[in-house]
Amino acid sequence: MLLVVLEHDRGAMDEAAREALTFGRGLAAQMGAPLHAALIGADDAELVSEAGAFGAEAVYTAVHEVLADFGPEAWGEAASEMVRQLNPAAVLAGGSERGNEVMAQIAARLDLPMVANCLEVNPNGGAGEWNITRQQWGGSLLEDACLVSERPLLTSGLHTLAAERAEAAVEPVTQAVEVDLDPSLARTVVKDRVVLEAGVTLSTAPVVIGGGRGVGSPEAFAPLEELAAMLGGRVGCSRAVTNNGWRPHSDQVGQTGTRITPEIYIASGISGAIQHWVGAKASKHILAINIDPEANMVVKADWAVIADLHEVIPAITEEIKRRRA
Amino acid sequence: MRILCCVKRVPAPGAKINVTDDGLAVDASHLGFATSPHEECGVEEAVQITERHGGEVTVLTLGPPEAADQLRYAASVGAHHGVLVATDGSAWDPQRTAVALTDAIRGLEAADGPFDLLVFGNESADSGGFQVGVRVAYALGRPIVNGIKGIEVDTEAGGGVVRARREIDGGFEVYELPMPAAVGVKEGINLPRYPTMRGRLASKKLEIAEQASDAEPGGQSLVRLHRPRETVTETVILGNSPEAAPAVVDVLEELGVV
Q1: How far apart are CA A183 and CA B67, in angstroms?
Q2: A2-188 matches A207-324 in fold
Q3: Which of A255, A273, A305, A313 has the fewest CB within 10 Å, making it most exposed?
Q4: What's this model's pTM, rounded to 2 decimal places?
Q5: Do B163 and B126 meet the contact criterion of CB atoms below 8 Å apart?
């Protein structure tokens, strides 16, 4: 059995879990093993049925008072206990921040190797030597790796494949797994949450207006803000901008910032260094505004305007106002 | 406060990352090396905590002898001690790295007492295994949370508490870890300072404690690095002036985002 650990936040399934189930369906077929899923801290019928829609034939649930909210150590121990009891041939999670963290906790607890952010996994007929292609440098470089393990622990690269439901939905068998967790594991459970902004965020915005070094100053982001607000989107930026202190780091798109997935990313005054590109490349469409026709961002964009963003952005805003009037 | 920071020497990436002919490493001949960004912020955070609460920062790295440069850089921005676990420069897998770092930390704690806080980068910029900090913290019995972009140390609360913030969509989560604790931090937790002239001079005098490790390789081994296949995009140029705005809005309308 291939066991997929499903990421959810207090009962809301994360896209990374759907991606992992999609990835896992292909891998389970290669392994000649059934696809099963683990739900930690939830036994919600909707989550179970969604896992079934993605092809999970069985869903194991672990419910315990220290699992009422997310905690990496409690989740890691609960998942490890499931692995000890269920003996899966391999364990998979989505390569999100939490997914990688929980898998690392499992790896530490079971003293097994873990391979993060896989793109391709070949079980080689089950001889215990797996060939894996995985992401390094946030995906700007790939590593072919050999994994020798009796029980591979893997995560699938975030947003490297689109989540797709199975052709035929399954009604999964559910089974509760008893996990005996030490109350001290509560030491790393979420204590509190602070909401700074409601509504659309950088990672969920349908439109992102990006600004780079070419914007020139913190004040010069105002026209980008105006356009973003008009389109129900958000402003993002490159690392050069946050390093200059022009925008908060939470606006940064890239390897060490946010991976965005908008319908369109309008990248203005951004050269497109590799660390920025890996955070932007999951955008469905890209439009670059840059004075340099050779800029990496221009070359990789679907559309480009080769002109000064300080003139082009306000002109776009005006044109939208004109059409809406 | 006694704080330990683990850092990794990585190639400083440019527009493109090239691979050496044998496919086993990044060709850094034109790039130079730097401290992995999350960890550079980790050192800054540790230094700031000791500036507020007193204490000392020890920086630990595992890497080739040249990784001493990264320890000196950390000293130039305020770290007090540097420890190098020297390798032959080959890529160590995450399990082996974690065992070597755990042994080194045990040795340092046996000699000088326990660290109140271990600071790791959330993941290294290059190999990005997403696990070394968690493995080390688990082996040492310390609580750890990753993805941390804010730390407050409260030495008054029973035995000492680390309040850590983790960014989530539209806000943040708060964790309270009893000390001794560990955190995996991310870039953005602070804006690292640049070394001062005085810092640079002090870093030259840093005495680096060198250790060897007999940690055995783990289950994952590197076969080959390669660049992803690049999809060639036919970029449609919509114009060379603000006059292109109507064409841009046409595109936005077509995508249904206006």
Answers
A1: 41
A2: yes
A3: A273
A4: 0.93
A5: no
C-alpha to C-alpha distance for B3 and B112, rounded to whole angstroms: 12
> CB contact, 8 Å: A303 with chain B?
yes
The ipTM estimated for the assembled molecules is 0.95
Determine whether the interchain pair B257/A143 forms a contact, defined as Cβ–Cβ distance below 8 Å.
no
The answer to whether A155 and B235 are in contact (CB under 8 A) is no
List chain B residues with CB under 8 Å of A112.
219
Amino acid at A16: A
Q: How far is CA A304 from CA A133, A292, B132, in A?
A: 33, 10, 42
List the structure tokens of B188.
Answer: 């953005």
Of B128, B176, B239, the CB nearest to A116: B128
Dihedral angle, C-alpha A293, A295, A296, A299, nearest 10 °: 0
Q: Does B17 touch chain A (CB under 8 A)?
A: yes
Which residue, among A47, A51, A42, has the nearest Cα to A3 in the 3D structure? A51
Q: How far is B124 from chain A (nearest CA, A)?
A: 8
DSSP A270-294: ----HHHHHHHTTSSEEEEE-S-TT
Torsion, Cα B208 B45 B159 A190, to 10 degrees, reads -130
Q: Of A121, A68, A60, which Cα lies nearest the Cα of A90?
A: A121
Give pLDDT tens digits along chain B (258 positions): 999 999 999 998 666 788 999 999 999 888 899 999 999 999 999 999 999 999 999 999 999 999 999 999 999 999 999 999 999 888 899 999 999 999 999 999 999 999 999 999 999 999 999 999 999 999 999 999 999 999 999 988 888 999 999 998 889 999 999 999 999 999 999 999 999 999 999 999 999 999 999 999 999 999 999 999 877 889 999 999 999 999 999 999 999 999
**Helix H or strand E segment including B236:** strand B236-239
Domain B2-225 fold: Rossmann fold (3.40.50)
Instruction: Give the up-direction half-sphere exposure of residue A36: CA atoms within 13 A in the CB hemisphere.
Output: 21
Q: What CA–CA distance (Å, rounded) separates A62 from A246?
A: 45
| Residue A89 backbone phi and psi in degrees, to 5 | -70, -30
Q: Where are the domains of chain A?
A: 2-188, 207-324
Apex CA B74: angle with CA B71 and CA B79, to 5°? 105
User: What architecture does CATH give domain A207-324?
Assistant: 3-Layer(aba) Sandwich (3.40)
State which fold the A2-188 domain adopts: Rossmann fold (3.40.50)
